[in-house]
Amino acid sequence: MPVSSKVRSVGVVLAMLSISGTLSSCQKKISDVIVEKAIEHSTGEKVDFKSGGQNITIESEGKKIEIQGNSGVWPADMPADVPQFSYGKIKAVTRSTMPEGQSWTVACESVPGNIIKDYEGKLKGKGFKTVSTIMSSDNGEGGSVSGSKEKLNITLITGSGTASLSVVKEH
Angle 99-55-1 (CA atoms, 0-180°, nearest 5)? Predict the structure, then answer.
């Protein structure tokens, strides 16, 4: 697994644990140091870990990951070609900046089950080539749609009232 993937994976897991904790402000500074050292130990890279409320930032050698919990807001810096996902409530936004490019993940809840075809139509309307899969079960409809256009790749996965939209913009 490449080092950037390790940083991202470890960072996201540890960041989510930090978000879910209910620590006092004094304990948060101690927990930041512990998380920072854990990431450094597992990746072998020096990192700067900052948390405040439900926001977390991890920086290391030209790489940056930002996590905003309960943001409720579509990312203002999302590429204009990406159709806004407006089918549920935005729960969290994650941004990553790497030398290879940028990425965004928008996690949503309260998402209706039959949106894949509609969002695929929006992607096609913006010039994306798409592939989709729709699944039906006792829990409703879900599935995925992927789109690509030049150096922009989008994947939407839905099911059980939740959705995750991932956007990668390569440099």
Answer: 40
pLDDT in tens, 64-102: 888 887 778 999 999 999 999 999 999 999 999 999 999
User: To the nearest 10°, the Cα dihedral for 18, 24, 29, 32?
Assistant: -10
Identify residue 27 by its one-letter amino acid code.
Q
User: Helix (H, G, I), strand (E, B), or coil: what is residue 95?
Assistant: strand
- Catalogue the E-assigned strands of the chain: 48-52, 55-60, 63-69, 89-98, 101-109, 129-137, 140-149, 152-159, 162-170
Angle between helices 25-43 and 3-20 (to 10 degrees): 160
The amino acid at residue 87 is: Y
For tokens 């790749």, name the residue: 153
